[in-house]
């Protein structure tokens, strides 16, 4: 069955010094464009809130005041874009301080492709809509959209193009062409990986590029090329997958993944029933702490411009974080790919990762207990990446006709005997073996949990 899928191909870039300056300029423009759009929305919202608060101060109920407050129209991307076009070349409007020269209010717009701003305006619309949806209960709770701070927010920008007149393309075996703008020509950046997998699909007419997102992570710039691919997706698992059947997965800290059935990670190696936790954060903690101490010593509080030594120390910390994230992502992609390749059905546990990693600090009136131990457990849980592993399995399953099955979040997978169903109510986290008083079975608690997940999971509805 031929289907259309949207897939991202990520490449590490090898830009020249001049191109790095261009990438920084584009990322800065995208950040300022987002803040520009969010500033317009915030201004209008504050006007509505002042009217609402005045009604509340007059004695009206808050819920009623929300309805009776004067209506305002929050500007969307089109209105933001129109206002930006009208005002970007005007001088500073307002009283000038003594000796201050008139200046253009949006000097960052020059020499950048306009589409980098339009996508930033879209991102502001998305952030605003997500916040409103969270207030209405249509998505998990989230805070008010925040402005992107220079030096604190991630440097990135996104450019889209017309499919009828594409100007984002590959030039040569390892070069990506990014369109220019603002009087500047397009530039071609060298890639550190071969894009042959995508270029072959484009050459055969199976794929078209829709956008490119360029971002900086630590010391490295990356380009994520988004493509629309016409692909023959399988309607059912292969014979090998059907013969393997279902596999149950128990996620943990001591062992990252405990499996109910064997999984082959590397060709020529024996299958495994457990995948050890590489403890990437723990192994990098000493080196990372040392780099952060150096950065803290070199920081001058309140200084308008930091020293070169501080910038070098900050870059060192960012590099360590980027390497840590890359290693974690590589390990996650490997195991999730092998799972959907080798099994027809994958049984998962419904996990509330946000609740599991909630702080134990408590409140002033009711302080928590074992706060340091809970903080260490939270770091270990986030280092494994439970939510990311589940997310990757879910979207990769659709490419292989794999069925996803789940057990409820409160299902006692670790405390139930997978043979007879007896429940060990006194089992603690310190107990690494499960001993069944009913049938006498003795088994590793994680292996028992994986078998329970396999036996009791219910397939998701299509």
Structural account:
- The chain contains twelve helices and 15 strands.
- It has 462 residues and is α+β, with helices and mostly antiparallel strands.
- 42% of the residues lie in helices and 19% in strands.
- The chain starts with a strand and ends with a strand.
- It has helices spanning 17-57, 62-68, 77-87, 114-135, 196-203, 239-244, 280-298, 308-342, 353-356, 371-384, 386-399, 445-456, and strands at residues 2-12, 156-160, 169-170, 175-178, 187-190, 207-217, 220-232, 246-251, 255-263, 272-276, 345-349, 403-407, 433-435, 442-444, 458-459.
- The strands form four sheets. The chain has a six-stranded mixed beta sheet with strand order 10-9-8-11-12-15, with helices on both faces.
- The mean pLDDT is 89.
- It has three domains: 2-17 and 153-232, no CATH class; 21-87 and 108-135, no CATH class; 241-459, no CATH class.
């Amino acid at each position: 069955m031929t289907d259309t899928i949207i897939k991202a191909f990520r490449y590490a870039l090898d830009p020249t010094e001049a191109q790095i300056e261009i990438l920084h300029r584009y990322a800065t423009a995208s950040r300022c464009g987002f803040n520009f759009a969010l500033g317009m929305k915030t201004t209008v919202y504050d006007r509505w809130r002042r009217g609402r608060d005045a009604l509340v101060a007059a004695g009206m109920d808050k819920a009623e005041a929300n309805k009776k407050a004067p209506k305002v129209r929050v500007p969307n991307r089109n209105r933001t874009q129109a206002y930006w076009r009208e005002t970007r070349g005007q001088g500073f409007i307002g009283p000038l301080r003594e000796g201050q020269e008139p200046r253009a209010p949006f000097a960052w717009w020059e020499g950048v492709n306009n589409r980098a701003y339009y996508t930033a305006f879209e991102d502001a619309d998305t952030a605003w809509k997500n916040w409103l949806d969270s207030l209405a209960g249509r998505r998990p709770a989230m805070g008010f959209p925040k402005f992107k701070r220079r030096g604190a927010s991630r440097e990135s920008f996104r450019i889209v193009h017309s499919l009828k007149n594409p100007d984002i393309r590959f030039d040569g075996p390892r070069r990506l062409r990014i369109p220019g703008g603002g009087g500047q020509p397009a530039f071609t950046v060298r890639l550190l990986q071969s894009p042959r997998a995508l270029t072959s699909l484009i050459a055969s007419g199976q794929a078209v590029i829709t956008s490119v997102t360029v971002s900086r992570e630590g010391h490295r710039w990356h380009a994520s090329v988004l493509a629309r691919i016409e692909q023959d997706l399988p309607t059912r698992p292969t014979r090998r997958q059907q013969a393997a059947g279902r596999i149950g997965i128990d996620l943990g800290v001591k062992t990252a993944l405990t499996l109910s059935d064997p999984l082959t990670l590397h060709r020529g190696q024996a299958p495994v029933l457990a995948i050890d936790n590489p403890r990437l954060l723990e192994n990098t903690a000493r080196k990372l702490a040392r780099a952060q101490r150096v950065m803290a010593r070199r920081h001058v509080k309140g200084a308008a411009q930091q020293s070169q030594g501080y910038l070098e120390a900050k870059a060192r910390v960012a590099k360590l974080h980027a390497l840590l994230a890359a290693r974690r992502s590589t390990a996650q992609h490997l195991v999730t790919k092998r799972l959907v390749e080798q099994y027809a059905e994958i049984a998962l546990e419904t996990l509330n990762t946000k609740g599991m990693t909630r702080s134990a600090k408590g409140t002033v009136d009711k302080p928590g207990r074992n706060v340091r131990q809970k903080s260490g457990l939270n770091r270990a849980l986030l280092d494994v990446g439970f939510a990311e592993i589940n997310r990757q399995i879910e979207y990769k399953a659709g490419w292989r006709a794999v069925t996803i099955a789940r057990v409820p979040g409160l299902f006692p997978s670790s405390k139930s005997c997978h043979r007879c169903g007896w429940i060990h109510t006194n089992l603690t986290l310190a107990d690494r073996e499960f001993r069944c008083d009913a049938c006498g079975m003795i088994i590793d608690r994680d292996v028992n949990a994986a078998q329970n997940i396999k036996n009791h999971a219910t397939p998701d509805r299509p």
